[in-house]
Please model this.
Amino acid sequence: GLYLELLLIRWIGTEIRIFAYLQNTVLVVCFLGLGIGLFTSDRRESAERGLLALVVLAAVLAFPPTREFLTGLSRLLSVLGEINIWAPGVTTSAGDTVIGLVIGLLATFLLMVLVLLPFVPIGRVLGRLMDAHPQPIVAYSINVAGSLAGIWLFVGLSRLNQPPLVWFLVLAGLGLPVVFRGRRIDWSRAALLAAVVPLVGFAQTSTGALETVWSPYQRLDLFDVRGGALPQSPSASYRVLVNNTGYQLVLDLSDYGGGGEDGATRLSTYDIPGLIHPNPERVLVVGSGTGNDVAGVLRNAPAEVTAVEIDPAILALGRAYHPEDPYASERVRVVTTDARSFFATTDETYDVVAFGFLDAHTTTALTNARLDHYVYTLESFERVKDLLEPGGIVCVAFSPLRPFIVDRLAGELKEVFGSEPLAYYFTGGATGSTGVLLVAGDLETAGARITSEPELASLAALRDGMPDPLTYTTRPATDDWPYLYLDQPRIPLLFGLLAGILVLLVVFSARTMKLPEAMSPRRWGTEAWHFFFLGAAFLLLEVQNISKASVVLGNTWLVNAIIISGVLSMILAANVVVLRWKKIPLEPVYAILLAVVVGLYFVDLASFAFLPFALKALIVGSLATLPMAFSGIAFARAFEVASRKDHALGANLIGALAGAVLESMSFVVGIRALLVAVGLL
Model:
């Protein structure tokens, strides 16, 4: 069940890009399907319907016209302008916006139905087994251990860069027991299970891609554009797509630089970090990608370069295909990690810190925060300031689709460094991407260098070319409110519309599956509500765990997997305690649980950021998951005596669904305030 959940979150987020930013949508639907199955466990498991839904989902993503339409959902759902994606939907009238949004939401509803149906039979089997087992805590512990196995099975495949075809082959292996009824094979189920794999294989193919790599974070497609395939970017050698949209150009800028005969600059944003300092000995590049930024420094300065990139697959493409071969230089040291984690752990200082075009195309596990959110907070820039040598300079390159984003970044730099940053607007073309370059730090040194260095003389024209004036009024992003792409604290309308679609999905399920009255909250007694609130609080706590770990340990796939595994391991430990000491009184357990939650509200886990990684991981992991030990004891005690184990687990999952919806409150109140909601729940 958990393996399939992770698979669908990743696969749908890749193929339909906007769901990479709305992962909770798929997560919530998976929870709902399992909850429905648990509440209807006395019925036949209907595995055929679930398998058929997977076949249909694979088929619509394999058939080119429906695949193209579903890929276009990102544009339809982005017409509100609230979810910052590359190549967003643009309409010229309110009517077109409404029509596009209605079509997008209707297609999303149908997609949710296909995601929900495979989880119903899993929930039904789980509910029956739980109810029949003579030792419910033992059964529950085995189930949690299975969840751990499912997590690491999928994480392992992702780390090995395996494609969806392999994911689904493994799923087919896990699903083999479904095709047997006693000693005989159910050939209809076998045929459906067998049909999914080739459809997924067909769906994952890319037309014309030189190479396709499924990294731990995203799908990367590499296209050869040498020979003028992109006339607007004649220096481009290769083009990299992420999740089916343009992401990076691999550029050969070795023949570019300085000013042209017409006075226009031939400099790129990649050149400035190597030129802006009079004598850079050490340069740090974060978000180094395929190597354009690193190559720019190597061309223009004799500095030693530290290149930080979170995605090992992007680094591999850069090593294999970048025409200037920057990663092969003896002056370059490559570090594969999250930028924020590197800031916290390095003991080196730098003359220049350069931010590449960091723009993540996915969120972290279970949260609304993108991978790059914590790189652009006030606290992050404060740490960067500490990493600078006297006279050091920071260069921040960004391609903002909304004016408030660059205004936010400029405001943060002004607050940290005490003066307004220099801002330059590059229109792209032969020298790379369109974007803004902000320069902060020792501006006296930077200004003198711009005046004295002939190659930088053309920057003055770029400073006057900003399309939108900087107002320095946009609310800064912080570790508690890291939403770089949200203009102000509010819940985006799209999230409200998706919540409405979720309600419609519940109504649809109730009508088509004739859900029992026991699933209606109006029929719940104290027992069901107890499990509901535990589930809601659990999900919000997990959001807290991952968010805080992201700040201290980094936002890598490994950190996310370890934190989620730590939570499940803490639940297993709680089960062992309950099995050993069956009569633990619940009053002190809840008292300690609330005390721990209150304590976490006031403890700044970022204060441990400078400890050695192993010690830091132990302390942060223990503190972040400590509430789970006591909530796990409360859950296990209640679960052992629950009258219906299936309904108890069902209410718990519906509660987790509610917790995932409540997570949107962090857009308004910040992430730490979610602990108040956890305590109340």
